[in-house]
Fold these 3 entries.
Entry 1:
Amino acid sequence: MNITLRPYQEKAVADLRQAFRDGYKAPLLASPTGSGKTIEYCYIAENAAKRGNSIMILVHRKEILQQTSDQLDAIGVDHGVICPGRSMTPELVQVASVQTLVRRLGRVREPQILVIDEAHHSAAGSWKKILAAFQHSYLLGVTATPCRLDGKCLGVMSGGHFDKLILGPTVADLVADGWLSQPVVYAPPSGVNTKNIHTKFGDYVKPEIEALMDKPKITGCAVEHYLRICPGAPAIAFCTSIQHSEHVCAAFREAGVTAESLDGTMTDQQRHYRIEGLGTGKFHVLTSCEIVSEGTDIPVVTAAILLRPTQSMGLFLQQVGRCLRPHPAKKHSIILDHVGNCFRHGLPDENREWTLEGTMRRKKNSQPAIRYRQCERCYFVHLPAPTCPHCGYIYPVDGREVEQVDGQLEVIDGVKALAMRREQKRLQGRAASEEDLYQLGLSRGYKDWNARAWARHVMAARSRKRAMA
């Protein structure tokens, strides 16, 4: 069975092939959650095997291993599976669990191509041991979030493994083309204050955020907003700990919502039962502690309930990505952000500039340069605007003193108005960078935060236009 790739997937595969032809040994594909990276690397594996090349797909979660194996089965690719309880077989295509492979390195033949799923983890201990053992393999990394919590780069220039970044479509591109659903973000008014929470290894200390979040008032607020905004919608609540997850689950049940808790201590059968139950509608809410943030594909999931503050943009995007896949049963996706993660990291469909050079760690409690507005009526979060684009509420204008300036007013007729608009458009077209647009916005009288938001919006629109050309 042949795979029919979407246009952007065809481009990604072509770009990866060109990178290898250009002499790169380890390209990294960055493409959003829900864009179909598993299909892309299974397609590559199928074609590599047809040419007699050996290829190994490295994954770190049981759910991702099973999904990858199922996808290979669906397209008729014979493959082996390296995981607990399975004997190794000689097929050219292998799907390997990181945890199992690192214990069997002495018994495994080095592949010609090594695919690393969720490649932002590749600097961790087990991955590094595998990569050290497979020094002669070509690498192909795939991830939705090519960033690390510690700010270190993934590129070879500073100790990483990848030498070429291949950019897939943006979330906004995929939403516009119908491949992802439109995210609608709500930030309920019971936001949490992380000012006194300490940081360790780049993120909030878990016992401290658990103590902060595992409170009846906050949990009750989460249940209340779910029942008001998206009652009955399949939802995943991302919690700070197993105990927190169980408490949130109990609160939903007390409110009459069918819910289950999920964590890493459960058996495969228990985890499968809960994940499958959410997909089939047996449960409405699944509360999770670090299990379904990556790789779990349940398209019917409509809402993500954020109950874990994090300084990790990668974790934030992986979590909200769980509900962005399109499904006939939902009109859009809903993010209930009770912890202010969207204010730390931006909206899910914001355009982000990924790089292999690493990122500077943001100072504790600092906010992104772009600011957002929250509707005081419906709590919808959006880019600055005079009205709420979700409910239509018109924001009151603050009173201000009028500054008098010299000059005579003149009548602006249609011809003059058209000439002025053309001049504004010409100046905007000549602005080559986001900084140029920002300065132009200031010259038009925009406030600093509004000028930055407008500049970023224009640059994102230009990127989408170029991609569609």
Entry 2:
Amino acid sequence: MSGFRTANLILLLFTTVATGIATDGGTLLVESYGKLLLIGTDGTKRVLVDSMILAALSPDGRNVAFTQDENPRAPANSTQILSVIPTSGGVPKRIAQLLRGHFESLGWLPDGSAVVFQGKDGHLFLANLSATAGAPRDVGPWYQDFSVSPDGSKIVHAVNSPVMGLEVLDVRSGQRTLIHKTNRVLWSAKFSPDGQWIAYQITLRDPPRTTDDEPNCTPPTIGLRVYSIRGKTDDAVRIVAPKDWENVKSFNWSPDSKRLTLTIGTTDCDYPGSANGVFTTTLDMKSQARVSLGDMSFEPMFSPDGSAIAYVDFSDSPAKLMRYDMTTRARTLIRQATQEDNYFHLLEWK
């Protein structure tokens, strides 16, 4: 009997690896030169799509929504396609297409029933995936990216016209409400997983004006703030970082909504710039840690259970996907790129 149980256990482990499902904390969704990769926490890699532009994992990690040019060889004149494909592979199911323009943002409703995307004329759409669903629902003009509340009832985005602030859309009624007004330009906003907070990027200061005819390519320096939906408070996130590292370039919530991880670095004309690091902080900023060691690390994501942070490290070539353990603070290599495909863009970890 014990031999039978051992054989079953070995078969189960083999099946788990074969289907591409990680055994210790989900799957990393990564883009590399247009290829969409699924990378396990053990470093195993599988190419899911050969050519893509945007991609988003479903909440259960079983499907990926992605956009691509119908004719990748002539993208300027190509129709853009939005499709959904199982992470196990198969034939993509076409959801929507744009004859002109391009998809600007992409995500899912928390229950996985619909794909949310910004498409035609900059409007936001909800595409229900049920067999009886009609055309995607147009919920009106949209500005920048979006974030869906954990219960799926609301969608937030940062707006800068005619006023600047956080605007929330009620999914059922379509009503929009400016819940928080600012006096500086906003860039992106994300609900916390518990729905009690919204973290958002905001301009700290604009670049200095040039004194001659030479154009100045320097962008604004961007900070991070957290707005409390219940308490109506709004606080700046301040990180203890090296001198001149004050430009927040990306951020993400921990699953328990108690921490943020962010990329902070220098303000440069290009991305990712001359120096960046990955940090984590509690909301009260009393507990902070520098996650990365090098001076070219970015795109941090919490693991599904919040026990680790994955990030891209390009301090030395080739690029690396790294893992930081929140308890031990140990850093381990997940996977290293090759010299031929020396690029990782970390999209999600679920």
Entry 3:
Amino acid sequence: MGSVETAHDVVIGRPVAIKKLRHEFRDDERAVLKFTQEARVTGQLEHPNVVPIYDLGDNPEEPFIVMRLVQGKNLSELLEGSPRPANAAEAADLLRRLIEIVLRLCDALSFAHGRRIFHCDVKPDNVMVGDYGQVYLMDWGVALTDEPREAFAGTAAYMAPEQLLGRTQDIDQRTDVFGLGGILCEIMTGAPPNEGQSVLEAARGQRQRDLAPRKLWTVLPPELCRITLKALAPEREHRHHSVRELQADLQQFLKGGGWFDTLTVQDGEQIVVEGQPGETAYIIQSGDCDVWKTIQGVPRLVRRLGPGAVFGETAVFAGGPRTASIVAVGEVTLRVITGDALNHELDQNPILAAFVRSLASLFRETDAALSARGVTLSDLPPNGSAR
């Protein structure tokens, strides 16, 4: 509905952006209301990630908004213009930079939510990234405030079900959580969350979303997929309860471990079986596990492992059969470590990667030397782990 042009503020001596309502909408009262609403709402949000509004020209003949001029691109343009990373290290760096943009959006939305303002149109087109790393959430024209508003407003491809169904009374922080989930979805898959669905299908959450990589990535981190799908849950109560909660999840992802899948097993379930081949290690997040080993033909309980314990690490580096059985005691949550996932994690820290890969190489050489003598690493004195 609007056009933007650059101008020069002769009083202050600075470049500015002027947004004007297009001529064909100037007799449309709803369009004028939306246009002025954007200026008034944005003007209340003095935040580093919201573009400052300098003036509102509310002349009905030609309404306009004067705002800071942002030199840069919107997030859609950045995603479209980004070539596929040449290697895993480049992919890790690009993904980190994109997630950091989403974290800045979380800051802006949390600030707005503290003032009972809900954006309701969070999407890549409305995110400006400046040439020097500035991040701005733009276009607050359909934001929901305490003033009465029409229900169906926003962009259908990114809308939460409560918006699509016109349930204005249900719009809250979790509606913008869905919008952020939509941005994460587009970062990973190259498409908005409701693409290829009818409005009714999207509103009812009838179809399982596909988070398969399409453009920038060859594989996706399991933890980031979990975070995204939680943010995009059709039922509000199943999403993150607030933008801050989503932000904490993303910050934890950036700290590491996001490439390790999560597995929950029940009491008595065997996680690894002695003698069977294996290439996967595990970290116990919660619960306990018993280690059973066959000694002189009789299965014996060797030890119990608790939260933080690691088992199966030998298999990741050297492969070969499992040297013990691991059985869940009660419900147990595990992080699953494969060689590929470990390499993705290491690609985020080149210095640590060089150190760990050097140790892994020495480990494999030692295992091969022992095997040539008819000995395996499992024959050495136990240290609390199991292959």
